Amino acid sequence: MPRKLKPGDTICILAPGSPVGGEGPYAAGKAYLERKGYRVVEGEHVKGRHLIFSGEDHQRAADVNVAFSDPSIDAIFCARGGTGTLRLLPHVDYGVISRNPKILLGYSDITALQAALYAKCGLVSFYGPMVTTEIGRGLTPYTEQNLFETLTCTGGRPLVNPPDEPPMTLHEGEARGELLGGCLSIFVSLLGTPYEPDTTGKILFFEDIDETPHRIDRFLTQLILAGKLKTAAGIIFGSFRNAVYPPDHPYVAMAVSVIDLVRERISGLGVPALYGLKFGHEPGMLTMPIGSLAHLDAGRGIVTTGPCVW
Fold it and tell me: Cα separations (Å) of 36 from 32, 119, 136, 307, 310?
């Protein structure tokens, strides 16, 4: 596990996937971290551009390797997700990272790197807000509190929705295991690769954005056919933001929601399952510690992580 974040620590901002984009939100996010009392540095290619990526694959991977190997850097925050992180995986130095565990914060497309680091190094990383996409646009109090409590924690803590937005129980029961998951479409893309996640005994968590219900059903079916859900201890779903059909889509008349498909798809698994925990592509989000031990009480809608022995 990486050590907890402390005042005065040095945070390195990386862009493992798409270019940073507009300078305004990125600069605002960087300034916010500096106001919080952290020293902020940038990866060499954080503002680069190659095709639809922030640099060539080996350049972006080199930024990752340097950030982990540099003893002056304490934590790594991703600027944004987008696309392209999967392309880095063959170029990452997993030995260096194993010897230098540090906080890695990001979500969405960053799932590919987080899952690979967990598979190859056992590194605990954090599925949470990024510099440009959330921090620079203004964190909600809920997101801000949860982020820094998680990164600076010394013990177990609950992952709880706001009081007026309770998650939905899909299958009652309790489970204990390490948290593993992220963006569903990216997680599925790792199947059949050297970075394929081992889901046995894990509490899986999945969310995504702008995916129609039948595509989410397809992703879950692929995981089932690959044997990845049968051996899981429990499953936590986010809200799958914008998972709706356009008005002119022929499936609209069938009046089937993504919740209907998710509930039916996992009904035969018999594992504790929860829907609607607020993480990932949400205006307000929890920070999920990938690889941390957790307890899921699906009947009560409670997830607790820890202890965090940092």
Answer: 6, 32, 13, 26, 21
Domains and CATH numbers, the chain: 10-138 (3.40.50.10740), 157-305 (3.50.30.60)
Phi, psi of 167, deg, nearest 5: -70, 165
Distance CA 241, CA 284 (A): 12
Q: What is the DSSP letter of 283?
A: S
Mean pLDDT of the chain: 95
Q: What is the separation of C-alpha 243 from the centre of its chain, rounded to a whole number of angstroms?
A: 18
Q: How many CB atoms lie within 10 A of CB 12?
A: 23
Q: Tell me, what DSSP letter sits at residue 137? A: G
Predicted confidence at residue 307, as pLDDT, reads: 58
Among 178, 207, 211, 282, the active-site one is 207
Asked if residues 47 and 60 have their Cβ atoms less than 8 Å apart, the reply is: no
Annotated catalytic, 207?
yes
SS3 content of the chain, % helix, strand, coil (to 5): 30, 20, 45
DSSP assignment of 156-197, as one string? -EEE---TTSPPEEEE--EEEEEEEEEEHHHHHHTTTSTT--
Please tell me which residue in 54, 125, 189, 281 is annotated as part of the active site.
Answer: 281
Q: How far apart are CA 111 and CA 115, in angstroms?
A: 6
- Is 91 assigned a catalytic role? no
d(CA 102, CA 120): 15
The stretch 176-191 carries a mean pLDDT of 98
Cα 255 to chain centroid, rounded: 30
Active-site residue identified among 18, 45, 54, 108: 108
* The pair of three-digit structure tokens given for residue 96, joined into one six-digit string: 């260096």
Task: Give the global pTM.
Answer: 0.95
178: annotated active-site residue: no
Q: What is the pLDDT of residues 78-91, one digit of tens each?
A: 999 999 999 999 99
Can you state the angle between helices 213-225 and 258-266, rounded to 10 degrees?
10
